[in-house]
Amino acid sequence: MNPVKRLLVATDLSAPARHAADRAALVAREVGASLDLFHVANVTAVEKLRLLIADVPAETGQRVLDAAREEMRELAANMLKQHGIAAGVQVASGPVLAEIIGHADTISADLLVLGARGSSFMRHLLVGSTAERMVRKTRWPMLVAKQPPHEPYRTLLVPVDFSPFSLRALRNAQAVAPGADVVLLHAFEVPFESKLRFAGIEDELLARYRIAARQEALGKLRELRDEVGLPPERTRLIVLHGDASRNIIEQEQEQDCDLIVMGKHGESVLEDLLLGSVTKHVLAESQGDVLVSV
């Protein structure tokens, strides 16, 4: 990823979206980038209401747009006061995803920032929400902010599978949080382990395979670390056996990471057609923010 020069925050003006705007301001200040706020007003709902109820004033849609512009100006003023970042403001109406993607193209955004809706059991509503649908369609790295920010990112968790997406994710991590420590994580499983056990393969042989696989992965992690120029004293290398999704969520907490950076897809060719299952799981289950690399 090239240096981040322009961030675009797509906001619905909810509380989680305001957290996303605050996070974007911290990132913009740290990397020296400009920041734009973008809101798509739901004028379509007003027009449908007018078809059902005759006395809804014709100017109601315009009032919705005016109210949204006023809220956006207030949000920009608060960001200038709190973070010293002067943000551009734009309000549009129309299909949400198409408007966001079109505006990102227009301003040549380098990074999209959105808020994740809800917490605890509500996190599962992220699946199918604007955030996940944007991840499926976006051509830009996308930061999904989940927590109110208090400081720049300090520790990044970067899960890698050694596919080309791994290097890209790591470079995106450096571009967004150049001052952070990095935890490089690789999770592996023994191919067809259950079938091998059923076929009578001894546990000792499987254990030897795991040891060899772990050593090979550590070597690859060191190569990846050195290729992107990460300082060894600020980089942790972790190789774990087991399910990738579970290990990522566990290590987020154990390593006290405040941002997970991962590719949109895994190494499977099939996953090029959809949002990777591991990425989808992490988006739904992580406690902290997630940067999805493309």
From TrEMBL:
- In terms of superkingdom, the source organism counts as Bacteria
Cite the CDD domains for this sequence: USP-like
- What positions does the domain UspA occupy? 5-146, 153-292
The record's similarity note reads:
Belongs to the universal stress protein A family.
PANTHER family recorded:
STRESS RESPONSE PROTEIN NHAX, UNIVERSAL STRESS PROTEIN UP12
Q: What protein name applies here? A: Universal stress protein
Source species: Aromatoleum aromaticum (strain DSM 19018 / LMG 30748 / EbN1)
